[in-house]
Amino acid sequence: MEDTRRLDTALVRAGLASPSSPERAEAVLAVGRVHGSAMAPVVRTLVADGDTAVAANAAFALGLLRDSAAVPVLARALDGPPSVGVVAAWSLGAIGAPAAAAIHRALGAKRPAVVARALLLATAKLRPVPVGDVRPYLHDADADVRWAAVYAISRSPVSAAVRDAIALAGDPNPLVRQQVARALSHRAAGDSLAALARPVLARLVGDSSAHVRIEALRAAATYGDSSRAVVLAALEDPDANVRLTAAQSLGAVFDGPRAAWMPIWRADTGFAFRSAVLTAAMSRDVVLPVAEFDDPDSWAHNGDWRYRAAVADAGAAAPSIERMREISLPESRDPDPRVREAGFGALAPHADTAQQHPWRREYMYFGLTDRDPVVRAVAIDALAGHGTAAELPRVWAGWPRAASDTIDDARVALVRYVASAWTRDSASFGDSLVALLRTVPAPVQPLVRAAGATCPLFSRWRDAPVAQLHPLDWYEARVRELVVPALAGTLPHAVIQTVRGPVEIELYAADAPLTVDNFLSLARAGTYDHIAFHRVVPDFVVQDGDARGDGNGGPPYAIRDELNRRLYDRGAVGMALGGPDTGGSQYFITLSPEPHLDGGYTVFGHVTAGYAALDAIVQGDSLTGVHPK
Predict the structure, then answer these.
(1) Residue 584 shares a structural domain with residue 612
(2) Residue 131: its pLDDT value, please?
(3) Would 537 be classed as within a structural domain?
């Protein structure tokens, strides 16, 4: 039922009537996953169910539904079993402004630490953050509560909380100090409190924890030139990801001639580090030798596509369109599609200024016929913001080719273009064009359908039947092989073999069986063999699973989300997405707690060993494979 994205009320009611606790819990969760708002009244009654698994899933489903009518029910659940209260607090935060008053009242009462923590995380989603409600918890005896409190005031700039954050700069818990650093950015402190915040950040840049140093560097860089010495000193940090963060911060704090950038360039030979330096210099309109097309040693001529793409990406940071054109556009003619994508991607944000510079828009037309679907998607999306009925036939001419692509990117982009052009220019659509678009068969891909959901030209897609992706016995096999053993306490494991050492993970087969099955199947097929961590954001995530290598790769299918109550704490394994229900082969692992991801991405596992290796991973590091145990 969830794979068809359609609510089957009779099936859900049958599940809720089952004597099996897991079946009842799964049935109520399914309502939230398929956005079955018609059954919200039933779900509300189940928040008080005697089975806490059912009650917690009911509370979670109401948060997925953003059901504002459930606020009183969820508020009462805060006083029930803590396992349910924690989820109710998350859902109140997910509902947002309609739940603000309930969150305010709840924070004024004494509650178990786990529920108080969850309520504080819920306040992080409110705007403005209620600093007065949070302040009493900043000095709580429980370290998790203190962390959640300072997290709440660090998620958005809050000047009223800067002095409170400074008082926690010496907290014994490094997770608290990380959030203190985030809370002291210039956006929060402003000029009036900068004199207080900057010395604290300078101390935290020398913290014993690399995670704290990373966050302190990012915050310090928001103060511009005054933090130059702090950032430059961090270029020699013993931790590679701290050095990378310093390099990424240079554009905000350092300005000088090319000769002054060259010692920085030579400070670290790592590809990720030098790419960051190249981009930072370009943001200051300084072209390093490796970006000069006429230099025979330029990265633009390097045999490794990653170096050529890095030049195009750096050009996108240039302060002038002329410089971007000089650096990035040559890469849009590269033989490797990943480099062409970077070249067109650099121009894409500027294509919509067609009135002053029509060449920008016209240049994107070259991308419409590219062999690669990702390049075509970049070009189409760049045009969509100012799409017109007159231009539509030229863009839509790519539909037959997109229809045969193995991935959805170009198909989704084309449908988005039509929807945008219709919104802006529907009066100019001729009868023949309207008739052509209305007869386009309903795509089988959910993402393509979703792209046209609000466009009247594709209204017939809404009622078209959705094919079941697998026969019923396929789903039954997944339950027997994965869910039943997991419910009995036996979870599958896998080892990610990286150049920094092995990272072992356990997989949540009962919470996300289709995602776990997909991951294990890809691992056994060798999909993860000899590829690289194409994305590493220090103190946030490491990500891999893309054999293409540029973040756009994956299998010729997408799996649906299996959102669940598992949290994105440090070491959580999640499904990387490009939008709802776009999972494939890419996954990520969190390096620090990231509550803002909870309920938005499928959590399907957790690291059980190998944290030292995990923390040492730098973008571009390779892994030999993922081996199920």
Answers:
(1) yes
(2) 96
(3) yes
The encoded tokens of residue 284 equal 């200051």
Which residue do the tokens 């509560």 mark? 145
The per-residue pLDDT for range 524-577, each reduced to its tens digit, is 999 999 999 999 999 999 999 999 999 999 998 889 999 999 999 999 999 999
Task: Using pLDDT thresholds of 50, 70 and 90, give the confidence band for residue 293.
Answer: confident
* Same domain for 586 and 570: yes
For residues 442-462, give the mean pLDDT.
90
Contact 445, 411 (CB under 8 A): yes
Predicted structure pTM score: 0.96
Query: Is 615 part of a structural domain of the chain?
Result: yes
Report the C-alpha gap between 517 and 367 in whole angstroms.
Answer: 36
If DSSP codes are grouped into helix, strand and coil, which group holds residue 502? strand
Q: Which of 399, 432, 467 is the last residue before a domain boundary?
A: 467
**Amino acid 444: pLDDT:** 83
- Model confidence band, residue 50 (pLDDT cutoffs 50, 70, 90): very high
252 belongs to a structural domain: no
Mark whether 445 and 482 lie in a shared domain.
no
508 and 617 in a common domain? yes
- What does the DSSP assignment read for 506-538? EE-TTTSHHHHHHHHHHHHTTTTTTEE--EEET
Give the pLDDT confidence score for residue 356 in this predicted structure.
60
Radius of gyration of the chain (CA): 26
Asked which of 467, 488, 504 is the last residue of a domain, the reply is: 467
Judgement on whether residues 502 and 563 belong to the same structural domain of the protein: yes
596 and 506 in a single domain? The answer is: yes
Same domain, 517 and 548: yes
pLDDT of residue 102: 98
Peptide bond into 263 cis (omega under 30): no
Cα(45)–Cα(314) distance, integer angstroms: 54
Residue entry with tokens 């030292």 = 612
Q: Hey, CA dihedral for 465, 468, 472, 475, is it positive or negative?
A: negative
Helices (H), 108-173: 113-123, 131-134, 143-154, 162-166
Tens of pLDDT along 100-110? Answer: 999 999 999 99
> Identity (one letter) of the amino acid at 553?
G
**CB-based contact 627:507 (threshold 8 Å):** no
CATH number of the domain to which 574 belongs = 2.40.100.10
Residue 230 forms part of a structural domain: no
Between the alpha carbon of residue 125 and those of residues 87, 163, 181, 514, the distances in Å are 15, 21, 19, 30
pLDDT tens-place string over residues 174-211: 999 999 999 999 999 999 999 999 999 999 999 999 99
Tell me the residue range of the domain where 383 lies. Answer: 356-467
The whole-chain average pLDDT of the chain stands at 96
Task: Count up the domains in the chain and report the number.
Answer: 2
- Based on the fold, state whether residues 619 and 478 are members of the same structural domain: yes
Q: How many helices (H) and strands (E) does the chain have?
A: 32, 9
pLDDT at position 464: 81
Check: CB of residue 591 under 8 Å from CB of residue 573.
no
